[in-house]
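EI: anyone free to look at a 390-residue chain?
SC: sure, send it
EI:
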Amino acid sequence: MWSEKTHKKLLREGLAAFEEEAYALSDCMAANPELGSAEFESSKNIVALLEKYGIEVEYPFAGMATAFKASINPGGRKKAVFLAEYDALPEIGHGCGHCASGAASVLAILAVNAVKAQLGDVQIDIIGTPDEEWGGGKVIMQRQGIFDQYDFAAMVHMMGENQSAVQFYALDGMEFVFKGAPAHAAACPEKGRNALNAVRLLFESTDMMRQHVIKEAIISGYISDGGKAANIIPDKTRAVFITRAPRRHQLNDITSWVKNCAKAAAMATRTEVEILPAGEDYDDYFTGPLKEEVMDTCFHSLGLEVVRPENQGNGSSDIGNVATACAAFHPCMGIGKGLVPHTYEFARAMTTPAVHKAILNSAKFLLELTYRLFTDEELLDKIKKEHFSL
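SC: here you go
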């Protein structure tokens, strides 16, 4: 691992050689947002920047056209991976700040590459993980065992304020396709089988579920196809549902119940239902006391304050699936108090000086975290033990 002297110099000067290019990379992605699994220009630009500094990149990677992987000092006994996201939201653009968080991971790996001769038995990778918002690039990679080799994975997300402790709920997505029989709604409705009634019954029954599931559970859905005309009995309808719960074992039962509601709705309306996956299923994520303490120390060593919101979040992310394979860190870097992800205001903030500063601070955080964990094997072992006990 690099020396303490080199580490201090990295934080003070080492990132400066690459930071303007990282800001330009983020700004370009913010101005040209691309949806998940279609981040072609974003991934090309990231790969081009890595290759500019002599880093060999595998691209595409893991069977995904916009994923990539690069290794600094391959073959090291100790292994860490920085995760880079770069997908945007429909309509809103980079309202989740992935342009900035992805650029921060790139900036950190460029700095690591500059001191690769001092890594010793440490290997540090960067993996570009597409489609966090829906398609779950990390889930696909986790199924392939890609994260099994690492001591830890880390990335920094953008948020209103700095935050060490975050929580992500487990999430399941499903699509229900009801098939009935068409008929003229006035002349012979008795000959039809109303697929819209089936969808309506599904919504009614899942609403009735809410009284009988844990209060933290979230069940949400919308009708994506409700029929074609008012004078035709709808013979085919579609609805997309998302279920969430704090823990995977809690969610499995809730999701099964929702699917049974769909089957019952089909039976009651004499229609048929096909149940399809909608996106990837995300596992839950909890920070844990020791990881939180280490991240607090990293923030404070960089002169940054940390907030602890009462609600640590009930959203979902595919970082939870990474966490089933290795210790995973997902702190948040503040870009402005009161700013909330998945909003137009958050997207508009992406090219401001505050975000550029957050990119630099996030890269510093990744370097600080890596240095602390790989120079204290006892601490790393304790973190790994705690992580898999959560």
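EI: Residues 4-168+284-388 form a domain with the Aminopeptidase fold (CATH 3.40.630.10).
SC: 👍
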